[in-house]
Specification:
The protein is an alpha/beta fold. It contains 8 helices and 8 strands, in the order βααβαβββαβαβαβαα. It is globular.
Length: about 180
């Protein structure tokens, strides 16, 4: 069986913050290539960047692991205000680099040669993509965490895996080591 892995970096960053631990991309690749007989046909990582040099060492590491890294510049957008009007320049802003189109294009491009998609995202905007891929006969596994995945995306997928259940398999190894000052010698 051929599988493709697509990681929405922005969505996963916030999901991992919520869980309180971060996964190791290398361990994710290993897990996606299991069990025996599964071939990881492609692995994509999507990231928004503040500037072209943003996250360069991390992106280089992902590439060396075998991920195809897709990036877009972050755009600063005003946060929606509740009620009253705000004077120009006031209020909160947030940065967004909507990569849903890139995710859709990549997954549609490989759909003819894979049987399963692992989609690490929580974006409701990917619901229609998931429906189309399923209509083409692909099995879709959505991976995220409760409270960080849109109900529409979760319902459109064949199955949902809460990343919290994969913590022992995915957590970065340096996070598993006790701090030096608390080790008993």
């Amino acid at each position: 069986m051929q599988r493709v892995l697509a990681v929405d970096g922005h969505s996963m960053f916030y999901a991992q913050q919520k869980m309180g631990w971060f996964f190791d991309p290398r361990r994710l690749l290993e897990l996606a290539a299991e069990p025996e007989g599964v071939e990881l046909a492609s692995a994509f990582w999507y990231a928004g960047l503040k500037d072209p040099s943003d996250q360069r060492p991390f992106r280089d590491a992902l590439t060396s692991l075998g991920f195809t890294v897709r990036t877009r510049p972050l755009r600063e957008l005003p946060a929606a205000s509740s009620g009253g009007s705000q004077a120009e320049g006031e209020g909160r802003h947030f940065a967004r680099a909507n990569l849903d189109v890139e995710i859709a294009i990549d997954l549609m491009a490989v759909a003819h040669r894979v049987q399963e998609v692992w989609l690490l995202s929580g974006s409701r905007d990917l619901e229609r993509l998931v429906e189309v891929l399923r209509a083409r006969g692909l099995r879709i596994v959505a991976l995220s965490t409760d409270g960080m995945v849109a109900r529409e995306l979760r319902n459109a997928a064949d199955s949902f895996v809460d990343l919290a259940t994969l913590r022992p398999r995915l957590e970065r190894s340096e996070a598993l080591q006790a701090p030096v000052f608390s080790r008993n010698g």
